[in-house]
Amino acid sequence: MSAQSRTRASGVGRVLVAVYAILAIAALGRSIFQIVDRFEEAPIAFSLSAVAAVVYVLATVALAAGWDRLAWVTISFELAGVLLVGTLSVAAPQLLGLDDANPFGREATVWSAFGAGYLFVPLVLPVLGILWLRARARSEASA
Amino acid sequence: MILPFTLVQLALACLVGLVCVALGLAGRKPNDLTVLSLGLVELLLLAQLVVAIVAPLAGNAPTGNPVEFWAYLIAAVVIPPLAIVWALVERTRWSNVVLGAAAFAVAVMVWRMEQIWSVQLA
After folding, report:
1. Which residue range is the domain that position B17 belongs to?
2. Residue B120 pLDDT
3. ipTM beyond 0.85?
């Protein structure tokens, strides 16, 4: 691996870390507030939201520290979560204890409507993360 | 909050986000344009801070939870300086993408703040 491609790979990795950090803080802050302020309104959705937030924090730390195995587990979990909870939030919001599927409302969470309230970052980011982890593993194997 | 001001702020943050991400993906390193554009985003946030303090005194109080509103505002005010420091420390094209991501994050947060301020039960 040339010095240049190493710089580039770590550069993209830094962007992933930065965006993950923003998302982790956004999800964590919001879920803490929702749980403290209105947990009884949608306990299932808010609990899932808190789990998601903690996993985003773990993913951010794993990416920043280069713990690839933890990064794989957390990022895969997020992708599964946003697809599953996103689908439920649109198709059957009542299953999550939500009144509606509005991704911008007071009961909205990070995975509601595939993360529409977060510019779909929760949907796109795990895919980019997996692509990046794969590319890096491949370049390290060939180095 | 004052809706027209919020909309201007929202449009500016989105524009700055697009320009910074585009320049970063085009291979440009952070320069005065991208760093100062985040400075402008920050300036409008500080103006929003003043509005949020003064507006309730003039009879325009938040309809939603003020704690939630202030949590968003304080977090938003902190983001552009962090992104600027990032861009000054790491002078690569990817720092422009980070600057852009920060601007988009501010845009979303400003929109949430407007909802909490003006939409009942938002």
Report:
1. 3-118
2. 65
3. no
From chain B, the residues in CB contact with A22 under 8 A are 79, 101-102, 105
pLDDT digit string (tens) for B42-59?
999 999 999 999 999 998
CA distance A125 to chain B (A): 12
Q: Quote the number of domains for chain B.
A: 1
User: Is B31 in the A-facing interface, judged by CB distances under 8 Å?
Assistant: no
Other CB atoms within 10 A of residue A39 CB: 12
String of DSSP letters for chain B: --HHHHHHHHHHHHHHHHHHHHHHHTTPPP-HHHHHHHHHHHHHHHHHHHHHHHGGGGT---SS-HHHHHHHHHHHHHHHHHHHHHHHHS-SHHHHHHHHHHHHHHHHHHHHHHHHHHSTT-
pLDDT digits (tens, 9 = 90+) for A47-89: 999 999 999 999 999 999 989 999 999 999 999 999 999 999 8
CB < 8 Å to B109, chain A: 26
pLDDT recorded at residue B36 = 97
Rounded to whole angstroms, the Cα distance separating A104 from A46 reads 14
DSSP A99: S
CA dist A58 → A11, A21, A24, A86 (Å)? 20, 10, 9, 21
| Radius of gyration of chain B, Cα coordinates, nearest whole angstrom | 15
